[in-house]
Specification:
Strand content: 15-25%
Shape: rod-shaped
Largest sheet: 7 strands, mixed
CATH architecture of the largest domain: 2-Layer Sandwich
Helix content: 40-55%
Bound molecules: adenosine-5'-[phenylalaninyl-phosphate]
Strand order of the largest sheet: 1-4-5-9-8-7-6
CATH topology of the largest domain: BirA Bifunctional Protein, domain 2
CATH superfamily of the largest domain: Bira Bifunctional Protein, Domain 2
CATH class of the largest domain: Alpha Beta
Structural class: alpha+beta
Order of helices and strands: HHHHHEEHEHEEHEEEHEHH
Number of strands: 9
Number of helices: 11
């Protein structure tokens, strides 16, 4: 019995030392197999109990089971300690350094021409004009004929046209065909609409002219609408868009679908009227064409020109954006160069 007690004490001391020195899960598992496995030292001793005297067996069994119990507790504790150590190591490895500089998040933004287009539409909306959308692909009839520009009319030269392979179908050269569509839809109600949209012209690309650009058309139809209404409304728009102190002026012009016709200039935004290269030393910048809707166009839209009258205008948001931001070449707009676009 004393021999057994000594053997158990020695075994326990070595096993405890083995458990304590196991520094990872794999080593601990090897230690467990060595001491607790079916062929392990503990099992060998327990098996040996069967060969002892029956009188000594209960006390020896108790002693051996106590050692076994203590070692099992030590094994569980070591397992738990190693799991905690592994977790702590993983947390340390994955720790975030919140003082490191962040990754810049690149967010999109609205195109400068979209920003100005929205601002223009917003101003017209506050002045009681409804936004009306019209199509990009138009008929020759809508784009020209119903706007008082029959085939072979010399004014067709003002709009170099992209024709499609389908006879009589083209890309609209201006937003004015939307006037006819709006009149036919709203008739006989009075109309106050603006029509923003893309236009296409088969012309030489230069610093001031693109083959694709926006326009915002405006149309008001009702009883007793006069040229004074046109001027007052456009002056009010210009003051909201460019500032109340800006001077504006109207120059007589010609469009087949308005009579009389005019163009509106604002005092140069760059030099304030004293003359510079942007305004070609004139002190003025043209921003739109306008006029009183031609009686024949009113008729084509379904309105009796003896009862109704109206005004219309068409402006180019890219040209206005160029003035507002001092952009000297319209080709930047659709070149998709981020160095340009990121400035807005
Ligand atoms: C017209 O297109 C007329 N439909 C405007 C109008 C509407 C007059 C209603 C009367 C009544 P114009 O060709 O001038 O007119 O074009 C109007 C505006 O569109 C110009 O002032 C300019 O700002 C813009 N624009 C015209 N062509 C180009 C182009 N190639 N590139 C960029 N902007 C252009």
């Amino acid at each position: 019995m004393t021999d057994l007690a000594q053997a158990l004490a020695a075994l326990e001391a070595t096993a405890q030392a083995d458990l304590a020195s196991a520094s990872d899960a794999a080593t601990l598992e090897a230690v467990r197999v060595r001491w607790f496995g079916r062929k392990g030292s503990l099992a060998t001793i327990l098996r040996g109990l069967g060969e002892m005297d029956a009188a000594e067996r209960p006390a020896a069994g108790k002693l051996a089971n106590e050692v076994k119990r203590r070692l099992e507790v030590a094994l569980e504790e070591r397992q738990a300690a190693l799991v905690a150590l592994a977790q702590a190591a993983a947390l340390t490895a994955a720790r975030l350094d919140v003082t490191l500089p962040g990754q810049p998040v690149t967010i999109g933004r609205l195109h400068p021409s979209t920003q100005v287009l929205r601002r223009i539409c917003q101003i017209w909306a506050t002045m009681g004009f409804q936004i009306y959308r019209s199509r990009d692909v138009e008929s020759d009839e809508m784009n020209f004929e119903l706007l008082n520009i029959p085939a072979h009319h010399p004014a067709r030269d003002m709009w170099d046209t992209f024709y499609t392979t389908t006879e009589g179908v083209l890309l609209r050269t201006h937003t004015s065909p939307g006037q006819i569509r709006a009149m036919r839809e709203f008739h006989p109600e009075p109309i106050r609409v603006v029509l923003p949209g893309m236009c296409y012209r088969y012309e030489q690309i230069t610093a001031r002219s693109e083959i694709q650009f926006h326009q915002v058309e405006g149309l008001a139809v009702g009883r007793n609408i006069t040229m004074t209404d046109l001027k007052g409304t456009l002056i009010s728009f210009a003051h909201r868009m460019f500032g109340a102190e800006r001077k504006v002026r109207f120059r007589a012009s010609y469009f087949p679908f308005t009579e009389p016709s005019a163009e509106m200039d604002v005092e140069c935004l760059i030099c304030g009227g004293s003359g510079c290269s942007i305004c070609k030393q004139s002190g003025w910048l043209e921003i739109l064409g306008c006029g009183m809707v031609h009686p024949r166009v009113l008729q084509n839209g379904g309105y009796d020109p003896d009862v109704y009258s109206g005004f219309a205008f068409g402006m180019g948001p890219e040209r206005i954006t160029m003035l507002l931001h001092r952009i000297d070449d319209i080709r930047y707009f659709w070149a998709n160069d981020l160095r340009f676009l990121e400035q807005f």
